[in-house]
Amino acid sequence: MGRTASNAPGYVPENQDLFDPRIDDFVAKVRSYTHFDHALSKDRREAFEITDEQIVTHSFWPLLGFAKKERRTKKDKHGKLVVSHKTREIKFGSHTDAAVLQWHTACLSQHYEQAILFSGISDCVLAYRSGVGDNITQARDLFNEIKSIGNCTAIALDISGFFDNIDHGILFQNLKSVLDVERLPDAHFKIFERMTKFECVDADVLKARLKRIKTPNGRICTPSQFRNIVRRAGSSLIETNTECFGIPQGTPLSGLYANISMFAFDRKLSRYLGKKGGIYRRYSDDIAIVIPASIDVSTVLRYIRSEIRKSKLRINSKKTEISTFQLSGHAVQCDQPFQYLGFTFDGSRTLIRSSSLARYYTKMRRGIRAKILAASKKGIPKDEIFMRELFRRYTHFGRVRNFPRYAYRAAKIFKANEIKKQIRPHMSQFKKFVQEEISTFY
Question: What is the pTM of this model?
Answer without folding.
Answer: 0.87
